[in-house]
Amino acid sequence: MPLRMGAHPPCDKSGPKGQPAVPPPVYESRGRPSHQSSDEPSTPSTRGKYMANRYEQIADDLRRLITAGTWPVGERLPAEAELAARYRVSTPTLRMSLELLQSEGLIEKRHGIGNFVRRPGQRIAYASDRHLADGQARPNVGADDSVSLDITMVEADGHLALLLNLRVGSPLTEYVFIGRQCESPRSLTRIYVPRAVASPGVPDADVSPWGDSVRELLSANGIEVVTTAERVTARFPTADEAHTLNISTRTPVLAVERTSTDASDRVVEGALLVLPGDRVEVLFTTRSATPATEEMETAG
Q: What angle do CA 113, 114, 117 make, to 5 degrees?
């Protein structure tokens, strides 16, 4: 049975008094040729070009309406079927327009609810020096942030077996952290600890979105992390990742693959982080030993 923790803090959820009417569409940047009728072209090649332009035209118009404040920040757009009828296009074409705006960060899709004008959120940083000298983790959760946690027991597939230097099928404890800013997901972190290493238990309720509390549990079990390696790549999200983070599959993400080893080079923790590229930045800090050396030479 999965263990779930974390609750969303109260946010401004004031909704609209009523859905405003959608003004007539205005195609500003890409107009239809004057000789073309209002009906879609009949030839396949021309139709394909027309449909490509049409979804971009609709995105232009929706972008204009959002910028003008027709739908305030946090407000739900009209239903997709209503917008498709208004613009006289099919639902798939309308969704292409919405995906374009979603990839730009103007709107976000809340599955089962609708499309909302996205509230601009402060970018958060995934920092490489999140721990102070005394071992205390830097605070990661702000007043408007929350973190949920699921804990399950899984078996290592091929990718995890390679990451953790284990055999396929080895038992693991999986910690899944989802960081949110009000209703908007900001990060997806999956931490894996081999059961042969430890059974860390449950982190405190006030957890880091990056899974730092798991390392603290390992330390409490007498397992000290000596080396951590992080590999960062840019890619598009999988369908499951896009669903969890409420982003389009066309929105680039930063993928962080992290492994932590002890003094014997045994992998004691593996982590897979997925961070939306428009909401998170990665900060790496390298500390030089030069000042300390100079101080020692001066003291001598």
A: 125
Q: Hey, which bits of 6-129 come out as E strands?
A: 107-110, 114-117, 124-127
* CA 237 to each of CA 92, 207, 234: distance values in angstroms, whole numbers, following the listed order: 20, 24, 9
- Residue in 276, 249, 272, 244 with CA at minimum distance from that of residue 259: 272
What is the per-residue pLDDT for 155?
A: 97
Q: Is 197 left (phi over 0), alpha (psi -120 to 50) or beta?
A: alpha
Mean pLDDT by 10 residues, the chain (300 residues): 53 53 52 39 50 82 91 91 94 91 82 84 75 50 77 96 96 94 85 92 76 89 92 94 86 93 96 88 76 51
pLDDT of residue 268: 96
Inter-residue contact 249 to 109 (CB < 8 Å): no
Whole-prediction pTM? 0.67
Contacts of 160 (CB under 8 A, 6+ apart): 166, 172, 192, 270
How does DSSP assign 31-55, residue by residue? PPPTTS-SSPPSSHHHHHHHHHHHH
- The confidence score (pLDDT) of residue 143 equals 60
**Per-residue three-class SS string for 134-192:** CCCECCCCCCCEEEEEEEEEEECCHHHHHHHCCCCCCEEEEEEEEEEECCEEEEEEEEE
Q: Which two tokens stand for residue 39?
A: 């009906």
**Crossing angle, helix 80-87 and helix 91-103, to 10 degrees?**
110
Contacts of 220 (CB under 8 A, 6+ apart): 200
Q: Cα separation of 78 and 73, whole Å?
A: 14
Residue 167: count other Cβ atoms within 10 Å of its Cβ.
Answer: 9
Tell me the C-alpha distance between 197 and 173, whole Å. Answer: 10
Q: Is residue 221 helix, strand or coil?
A: coil
Q: What angle do CA 157, 158, 163 make, to 5 degrees?
A: 95
